[in-house]
Amino acid sequence: MLSYEDLLELFWTEHEPRRNKPSRQYSNAVFYRDSRQREAAEDSKTAAAAQLGVTKDRVETLILPVRSFTYAEMYHQKYMLTRHRELREFLSTTYPGTKALADSTVASRLNAYLFSGRPAASVDLEEEIAGFDLPSRLLEQVTRFLSRP
Question: What is the pLDDT of residues 132-145, one digit of tens each?
């Protein structure tokens, strides 16, 4: 199981913190639930700034308390799957509604594999894919896509 600190480390390695969107709905943020998480988030922001060789005030990523959670619109859910129409349609039918698709482990894992676009991901996928219960034609499409050079 990942700790909050593990998530912070992953976040900063995959994130460009020196730019933020002016629109609140698209802004970059780290959320915390309590004072321990807030301190960890602030420390991680300081470390990210040091790694980049900038002062902490140059890191535009917001550190905010968790208040309420709202699911994004359906077209934002599992965005990489939108490039694979037939797979996305199958998953949207299997997991109807924004919450069901967003919460689906299968959709999340496939979205991550397709986002990576790396052949190495196919090794992990092959170990997992049998449990996804996808039609064979969709399994073939995903495997073919990930095995491309």
Answer: 888 988 888 877 77
pLDDT over 70 at 124, yes or no: no
pLDDT of residue 20: 62
Domain count, the chain: 2
Question: d(Cα 67, Cα 32) in Å, to the nearest integer?
Answer: 9
Q: Are residues 140 and 80 in the same domain?
A: yes
Reading the block at residue 28, the tokens are: 């970059």
Task: Return the pLDDT at 38.
Answer: 98
Cα separation, 51 vs 45, in Å, equals 10
Residues 86 and 58 in one domain: no
User: Could you tell me the CA-to-CA distances from 133 to 70, 82, 106, 128, 136 in Å, in that order?
Assistant: 29, 19, 9, 10, 9
Handedness of CA 51, 56, 57, 61 (dihedral sign): positive
Largest CA distance in the chain: 52
